[in-house]
Amino acid sequence: MSTIGTPVLPRSAPTKSPAESPADRFDPARAMAQHADRSRIALTAIGALLVLSVLLSLGVGAVAIPPADALSILASRLGLPALTDHTSVQETVLVALRSPRTLLAMLVGAALAVSGAAMQGLFRNPLADPGLIGVSTGAGLAAALVIVLGGVLPFGLAAIAQDVAVPLAAFAGGLATTWIVYRIASRGGRTEVATMLLAGIALNAVAGAAIGLLIFLSDDQALRDLNFWLLGSLGGVTWDRLALAAPLMLIPALAAVRLARPLNALLFGEREAAHLGFDVERTKNWVVVLAALAVGASVALTGVIGFVGLVVPHLVRLAIGPDHRVLLPAAALLGASLLLIADVLARTLVLPAELPIGILTSCVGGPFFLWLLMRRRGLGLW
Amino acid sequence: MLSARNLTVRRRGRAILDGVSLDLETAQVTALIGPNGAGKSTLLHVLSGALAPCAGEVRIAGRPLGAWRRADLARLRAVMPQSSELSFPFRAFEVVLMGRSAHAGRSSEARDLEVALAALEAVDAGHLAERVYPTLSGGERQRVQLARVLAQIWPETTSETTSEAAADTASDTASDGLNPLPSERLLLLDEPTNNLDLTHQHQLMRTARLWADRHGVGVLAVLHDPNLAALYADRMVVLADGHLAAQGTVDEIMTAPVIGRVFDLAVTIERHPTRGAPQLMPV
After folding, report:
1. Does B91 lie at the interface with A, CB-CB under 8 angstroms?
2. What superkingdom does the record give (chain A) (predicted)?
3. Which of B42, B45, B101, B203 would best serve as a mutation to test chain A binding (most A beta carbons within 10 A)?
4. SS3 per residue for A196-254
5. Would the CB atoms of A28 and B113 count as touching at under 8 Å?
6. Which of B48, B70, B116 has the CB atom closest to A277's CB atom?
7. Residue pLDDT, tens place only, A309-336
8. Is B277 helix (H, G, I), strand (E, B) or coil?
9. Which residues are CB-contacts of A189 (< 8 A; sequence separation ≥ 6)?
10. Looking at the predicted complex, does its ipTM rise above 0.95?
11. What is the distance between the alpha carbons of residues A363 and A365, in angstroms, rounded to a whole number?
């Protein structure tokens, strides 16, 4: 660093700030454009994957329905001339079975993934999961209560058909558990997120124990029905039930996208978000309400499907980063496709039986998550 | 600009702040010093609105804190936290851009980008723009956070003034004329020099000083080092045990009796050889 004997020192030579030379200067507009391009490519790819998954889900099964036939059936349903000579069996299968099931998978996948992403933002923890606020186990417990003890309910309640009572009870149970968790964590208009997390863990444990007790008490039939809840399945959905639950999943998932900016700010901490000008308490309330509705409705129809809400947001972050403005819609699309693919596998892998989809998602999701953990540690992020 | 009256915060019957009143003026740097546990951070939280006092009131520009719309307040008052945990892989540049949140709908995206970059360069962190925040060192994070809060209250003038301001901040040259103040603004810094090396401690304080002089920002900084405070601040506020122990100009506070009483430490005061500011030395 000695300058002795150096008659003229170039002005910019000793500074180490790269901002000095125009060529090296970081161009924010270009970086943002690159980032936007990347997001667009990822969104397009995820969209294409979703289209493929839908075709796969509509087409694969005991009765094959190629895309052309599916289109033809759709056309004839709309009063247009049929495009191919599709069979009436194909039509019945597509309309009564595959279509509602495909729609259900998309809705549930999107609802779980968006709720997961929003929860991770709310808890400022990439390990958070929609189940943390107790909604899944609460719903499972309520469903188990109806399944196991339904036969002995008083006041003629036992007469209510189980396929109506169980989803309703599950939905109510999920909301009730979340409400309890939320009440415990709130005081004087403020909600302590850390307390909510711990209360959720405690309530999950209690509900899990109660479910275990109910399993212990149940007969063979109840045990089989319970399996549906604890392992998840998209089977047996009808248009009626879908129509009832669809708004409960779709509307919260869409509404959550409006929380993208405050959720971004929340990642920096509640105080920082408030100082940046966001209404933190309102954001927290909305995230919990929307997630409880979306997850409650999806658990009511399909039982507990694990790992989708945890893993999908991570996959999206890997591709396009943590900005919720892109993350939330992309997670919805990817969640929808992945659950469709999982469902296709679940109903074709062990024909003629059907694998509970929750087993499949946990089987794939668990190891994948471990890989993610190790990769992140390798990058020094944790 | 900001006036606080009789702020009292009690927790489990113990007064953490007890009847603290103070005023912050525009274009002034005020240093808040005091021993550990004196209530400095608590006071900053109350002044920033993050914590509601049990008694007393904070007004900014004459209006009580609670009467401000959040976004309006955020455009004239920025708060730099002691430390910011962030486990999501935002890039430093995106972190700074977050400071523009309250300007959504009022400021163009291009302008936000320009401000964010200028703010990063103002804290000597332009080269960190594309780095992933959780992988930065503590000192680098602190500088990125400072850039974020500067971007939040960046002067709303024409773009050439902006780049000029950035250049001035970076090179720290003396100016011959002050820019007109578009509005009054306030910068609250909670132990901003934590984790910073010597160079960047002084650079940060120079930046704060510059923003007070050049842009008329009222700065309050919680500092541990009275000597550092004395070099850059106009006024010093001393907290001890939740009470306002003393407040006044640097020369009034940096005296052996005041420092000795508050910190329970015998000191002598000398003048800085070139800058004239009082500096204390333990005896």
Report:
1. yes
2. Bacteria
3. B101
4. HHHHHHHHHHHHHHHHHHHHHHCCHHHHHHHHHHHHCCCCCCCHHHHHHHHHHHHHHHH
5. yes
6. B70
7. 989 998 898 888 899 999 999 999 999 9
8. coil
9. A281
10. no
11. 6
Q: How many other CB atoms are found less than 10 A from the CB of residue A202?
A: 13
Here the tokens at position A329 are 């819609």
Is B117–A17 a contact, with Cβ atoms under 8 angstroms apart? no
φ, ψ at B280 (rounded to 5°): -100, 150
For residue B34, what are the contacts with CB-CB under 8 A and spacing of at least 6? B40, B238, B239, B240, B245, B262
Radius of gyration of chain A from its Cα atoms, rounded to whole angstroms? 25
| Cβ-based burial of A203 (10 A; exposed 0-12, middle 13-18, buried ≥19) | buried
pTM: 0.84
pLDDT of residue A382: 46
- CB-based contact, B264 to chain A, within 8 Å: no
- B283: enclosing H helix or E strand: none
The CATH number of A38-374 is 1.10.3470.10
Rounded CA separation B46/B43 (Å): 5
How distant is the alpha carbon of residue A115 from its chain centre? 5
- Residues 285 to 344 of A: which have CB under 8 A from any B CB? 317, 321-323
Go through the domains of chain B in sequence order and give each one's CATH number: 2-282 (3.40.50.300)
Domain ranges of chain A: 38-374
Counting Cα atoms < 13 Å in the Cβ hemisphere of B189 gives 35
Is B81 touching A (CB cutoff 8 A)? yes
What residues form DSSP beta bridges with B282?
A: B267
pLDDT on residue B59: 93
